Amino acid sequence: MEHIREAEELSRELGGTDKDVKKYFFSLTSDELKRVFDDYGIKYDRVKQEYAEETFQKWKSGQVKMSGLVAGRLFNLLPPRMPLKDKFALVENLWQAYCPKSNKVILIGSDTSEQEIIDTIQSHLLDVVVNYDIPEPIQRRFNWLSGGDVNVGQQLLNHFLQKEKDLIVNSMNHRVPVLLKHLREHGSIIHKMQQQIEIGKHRLDLQFDSKISGIKIIERTSFCPSQSPGSTRNWGWLCFIIVVILIILARYFMK
């Protein structure tokens, strides 16, 4: 079962999956492959190089399964010659799975300005991004792609954090004005409006309410929509009427 252990170790080293790395390896041009195989022969030996060159097409077709040991040795030769854009691409799927996320309810009063709403929500989301702890799978992928080069690892992290920030800023600047425009146009008949928006992995419930003031961000689990006093009174009257009807029916059937 050594080959299974080696495959699992390789997958762990690459951040939990090696499928995208294999796809990248099998997509190399003949010239790129030659340079990888030449380095492989120099580092290990020419016999192993010849075997890899002869078996490559069978690996690619799935006719022969590449062992975790061989795959690890070959894959570790890729990052030093890999363009930065390809490194970004090999982080993308993992980033989508482990990127910063939040789940909040935003209570917004009628006296809150458009800019105040944008600034408050942006500040919250950017704070989530800035304080983001890199999960182990992404850190392992960064380590593999950087080959121990701290500058490359920082470039990778900065790239994806900046993408998150740009997504947040652009989304808020576009969505909030549209929502407020709708609310203003129908303000005479709409006293409350709820709009759920998703920005990346951030889920926000915007609760516009003309009866409150200011803006407040709260945890979704602690949010419980309150009933208006009128609504409570209506339910009380309904319960009273039902009790009276039941009493009358009980007396009727007891005769």
Question: Care to describe what's here?
Answer:
This protein is α+β, with helices and mostly antiparallel strands and 255 residues long. The chain folds into 2 domains: 2-81, no CATH class; 96-223, no CATH class. The protein has helices at residues 2-13, 19-26, 30-43, 46-61, 68-75, 84-98, 114-130, 136-146, 150-185, 229-254, and strands at 101-109, 192-199, 201-209, 215-219. Strands 2-3-1-4 form a 4-stranded mixed β-sheet, with helices on one face. A hairpin with a 1-residue loop joins strand 2 (192-199) and strand 3 (201-209). Helix 6 packs antiparallel against helix 8 (136-146) and helix 8 (136-146) packs across helix 9 (150-185). The radius of gyration is 30 Å and the shape is elongated.
Short overview:
The protein has 255 residues and is of the alpha+beta class.
Mean pLDDT: 85
| Poorly predicted residue ranges | 226-235
Shape: elongated
In DSSP terms (H or I, runs of 4 or more residues), the helix count works out at 10
* Sheet with most strands: strand arrangement: 2-3-1-4
In total, the number of strands is 4
Largest sheet composition: 4 strands, mixed
- Percent of residues in helical segments? 55-70%
Order of helices and strands: HHHHHHEHHHEEEH
Rg is 30 Å
Amount of beta strand: 5-15%
Please give the domain count. 2
Q: N-to-C terminal Cα separation, in Å?
A: 83 Å
Features:
alpha+beta, 4 strands, 255 residues, 10 helices, elongated, four-stranded mixed β-sheet
Question: What's the topology here?
Answer:
Blueprint: H1 2-13, H2 19-26, H3 30-43, H4 46-61, H5 68-75, H6 84-98, E1 101-109, H7 114-130, H8 136-146, H9 150-185, E2 192-199, E3 201-209, E4 215-219, H10 229-254
Parallel strand pairs: 1-3
Antiparallel strand pairs: 1-4, 2-3
Helix pairs in contact: 1-5, 3-4, 6-8, 7-9, 8-9
